[in-house]
Design brief:
The protein has two domains: 2-67, no CATH class; 73-172, GMP Synthetase, Chain A, domain 3. The protein has five helices and seven strands; from the N terminus they run H-H-H-E-E-H-E-E-H-E-E-E. The protein has helices spanning 2-27, 33-36, 43-67, 87-98, 132-151, and strands at residues 73-78, 81-86, 104-114, 117-127, 159-167, 171-173, 179-181. The protein has a three-stranded mixed β-sheet with strand order 3-4-5. Strands 1-2 form a two-stranded antiparallel ribbon. A hairpin with a 2-residue loop joins strand 1 and strand 2. 13% of the residues are buried.
Length: 183
Amino acid sequence: MKGLNGFLVFLGTLFLVVIGGGLLGHYFALYDLTQIVFGYGRELWTGLAGAAMFILGLIVLFAKITLQRPEKSFSMQNPEGEVRIAFSAVEEMLKKVTSRIEGIEEIRPRVVDGKRGIEIVSRVSVSEEVNIPQLTMRIQEIIRSQIRDVIGLEELGSVRTYIYKIASRSKAKGKNGETGVAF
């Protein structure tokens, strides 16, 4: 069905581009289409309609080519058959699990294709009071265990962590309006 749908969109787009190009050709006096189809005196409307169809056809064609890329995923063999898992599903799972770790302000895990299988690259914002080496080691351990235990993938490429921000302690107002440091 997807192949047929893509083919029909391609044919419709091709039709718009050809008709629009033909009308534009008439507008620029390459030939006299109005005498054949519309009669005299409608050159401006013919040119505008041709330009609109031509531009619309190019936009649809460009959108079809660039916007409909398949979502990245990886596959695993199961006794019942192949299982495909989207990178975005893994990223969401890892984000939910690792964002609960104390000391993490924000985490953005990304799954990428690597030389030795999938790799995880996490951008992390941490609190300033945490021990960064211990925290990053914990993040990497949790990511590896989640990939192994939940997804069932034993081979995992590198798990890299990039600390992009060390958040300072926020100031909060006390009961009497004085400012203090909130932890």
